[in-house]
Amino acid sequence: MIFQPTLVIKGKRARTEGSLFFIWDEKKHSGYVLSDALQGYAHIQSDVEAASQLTIAKEGIQENVNGHPCHRCEAVVVLDNGLKARLTLWQADDARYFPVRIEAVNGPNRMTLNFSEIRLEYPAQQLFLPPDGFTAYATSAALMNELIVRDASLARRPGEFGEPNEVHSGNWHDSPNITPLGHQ
Fold first, then answer.
1. What percent of the chain has pLDDT over 70?
2. Which of 39, 44, 70, 113 is deepest in the core (most CB within 10 A)?
3. How confident is the prediction for the chain on average, in pLDDT?
């Protein structure tokens, strides 16, 4: 599976330099997080696995979701740590019941996955590898830290928030536009 979350960023800090996406191989319970902005990737894996198959608890309402006629159903899967994950699935009638939307609610937290560009075929194995030329990071935390550091350095560009450029330079006290306090 390839997953690219849609992030809504508004205001002055919105940037278009790239985003994160994920490649996941369910059989291996591992994959990669990739950053377009860094042209980098890091290996990720999960130790949590389903201990049982997905059980459809309640099947029912017909709706159109993501351009597909679907049946909404409630599902439960027992994880290997004993917890139960409760999901709402919208299974596409025209795509061999593939869930085009999955919603999980855990108390006040809600996660919704919408799937698009669905291809019901076995992908080539090289699809599950990072692109050639991307830089490997030791961990996903290292990749995210690099993104944070770069974003913070971009936010400190001179004049971005209306400050005079002289305040950011090492010679601000020599600037003719700035008068030291107490000197008129």
1. 70
2. 70
3. 76
- Whether residue 57 is predicted with pLDDT greater than 50 in this model: the reply is yes
- Of 2, 23, 18, 3, the C-alpha closest to 129 is 23
CA distance 137 to 131: 14
Kindly state the average pLDDT of the residues 23-40. Answer: 88
E-strand ranges in 16-159 read 20-25, 30-35, 40-45, 55-65, 68-78, 84-92, 99-106, 109-114, 135-136
Encoding tokens for residue 89?
Answer: 């699935």
- The residues near 10 (Cβ < 8 Å, ≥ 6 apart) are none
Closest C-alpha to 154, from 18, 35, 15, 20: 15
Question: Cβ atoms within 10 A of the Cβ of 46, count?
Answer: 10
Residue range 150-172, pLDDT digits in tens: 877 776 655 554 444 444 333 33
Q: What is the pTM of this model?
A: 0.56
Residue 121: CB atoms within 10 Å: 6
Could you tell me the two tokens for 118? 């669905």
